[in-house]
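pasting for the record
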Amino acid sequence: MRSLHDNVRSEEALKRKCERMATGDIAVFLYSHELEDERYPDDCPLKTERVLRTREIVSSLGLLSDSRVEEVNFAPAGRSDLEAFHLPAYLDALEAAAAGHHRLEYLEMGIGSKDCPVFPDMYSYGQLACGGTLTAADLITSGDAHIVFNPSGGFHHAGPAMASGFCYLNDIVLGCLRFTEVGMKVLVLDLDAHHGEGVQEAFYDRNDVIYISLHESGRTLFPGTGFEREIGADSGRGYTVNMPLPVDTYDDAYLECFQQVVMPLIAAYAPDVIVMELGMDALSGDPLAHLALTNNAYATIVDNVVEFGTPLLATGGGGYHPDNTARSWAFLWGVMSGGVAIDHPPLALGGVFLESTEWHGGLQDRTQVPTVKQRRSVEPAVANTIERIRRDIFPCHSISS
């Protein structure tokens, strides 16, 4: 497998990026102070303060002060916005449960389950997250921004009438629909450790949205979906691409999937916009998943995606170690907005104790070398997944395998 460091940008690629930035392409960081008052229950692994911490880090590093960067506020999504995907009866149930009027039948919609508890902010936080992603979509379709990051978004599990995996409303689906409404082709790249079954199901039989997901295998992780055989149906056949990964997948193996599968698909599909779900639960040490990435893998992928020059809408997602998640989101914002360069190899030990734009090591993880045992368990599984996708998916897009 190729090394992580084989993905360092050439001088020519750096020049192209500088030329694009000089044309006035705007990168927008989305933040609403209303998020600071919204909380999941204390015993829930999802900590909403990740977003505030991310904003604090990028602000302290000066990553919101560049002339080509803007910080934009946003409002909650309205009822009509949400009904573009979610059923009215489900939205009624969410509102009622949040107001303290929970009914037993709501459990059939996932409301009040172990991973989707009932609490006062359950509906309003979802509205905010959706409002952020819809604002991002509008900024891109209007041409007012080229790259937009909504760290409060990324709730990819929710269905039209189903809460799942801490997700009550699906902002990613709503954002994609906003793009397709104006005739744009969308490529969704989901990097969360958990498979986004809500997004997959929404576009499973469509070819104006291609959904690509790198995630821990459903054999070892919730929600138990996202296998290679799930490739779409009818006109959408070949437009759902799943790369289930084994436990302990490390940077080089993950990047091999990206280089061998994702890069050719982006080039062949030629989307009008790319939507990236940047869940940080694939990082080593996350308490709810079992992958072993550093944020260098995420940064390399973001770097390569930005290099296509396609408008980019990035969201947050999973990530249940709040400090690691916030630090990594700040790092990725720096990469996508052009404010941070990637060190290859990184010399730092990690942490944000030196917040300086002259020393980025506080954001970038230290390189981790996989063990021989890791390589022996991961490499064959990854190679098999790549081979199967190239065999089953590539012909649908006239890509030579």
